[in-house]
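Reading a protein record of the kind used here takes only a little practice. These numbers are not coordinates but entries in a learned vocabulary of local backbone shapes. Here is one such record, which you should read through line by line.
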Amino acid sequence: MKVVDGRLEFLNARAGMASFVGLVPTMGALHAGHVALLNAARAECANVVATIFVNPTQFGPTEDLAVYPRTVEADLQKCERAGVDLVWVPSVADVYRRGSAEATSVQPGPLGAELEGAIRPGHFHGVLTVVAKFFNIVRPDVAFFGEKDYQQLTLIGQMVRDLDLGVEVVGVPTVREPDGLALSSRNVYLSDDDRKQALALSRALFAGRDAAAGGARAILAAAHAELSGVNVDYLELRGAELESVVPESGPARLLVAARVGTTRLIDNLGLDL
């Protein structure tokens, strides 16, 4: 496995990859969910590129950029065990050559201002811009993202289609602890008591799925009943592509975001109506 930091060094290393290239963009603090992405890329692609970059443009002024977990050495070990060929660990200046307030950026459209976008204004503007930059710099054939950040996955797919970026976007199912908690880099912030309370999110989703035969109202009622003890930002049932109009039958997506202690967590689950 080759590890590089500067942009020119990366481009030189990337130039030696002539065949099918898979990209796994990450912000580091890798856990088993990220490893699942790396494994999916390794299984499908001749060459696997991972990036480790804490992107400043997707953090709001009151969010946790300064304390976001950074574990590069441990991350590199996980990448090597997963068979990654090339890891790029760029600086902010390598990615944003004119500074993080560049004049040109990607606007996510109406969905980018809903759900997570309503709670975190500008978040998806930053996410899509950095992903578009990585697509243009790395030039992958396929890129892998986790379903745990389902709105992000949906918006990236929308961006690729709308801008004809020519990258196949693959969603990888959420990885959970045995008790149901979705893996997240922010789980390290949870105290023991918070960790127990955090299970309310996955319990709500599973309860909603189990009530799906009763329709949308039954799903939401069952899910709400499990959310005591956490501060809920939203619990919403959407269409499979996060349409606000929920179909009467077929695939849908139940999404939840809540604060547990001082930690904000998100989760979601696909279900059939």
Observations:
- The chain has a mean pLDDT of 96.
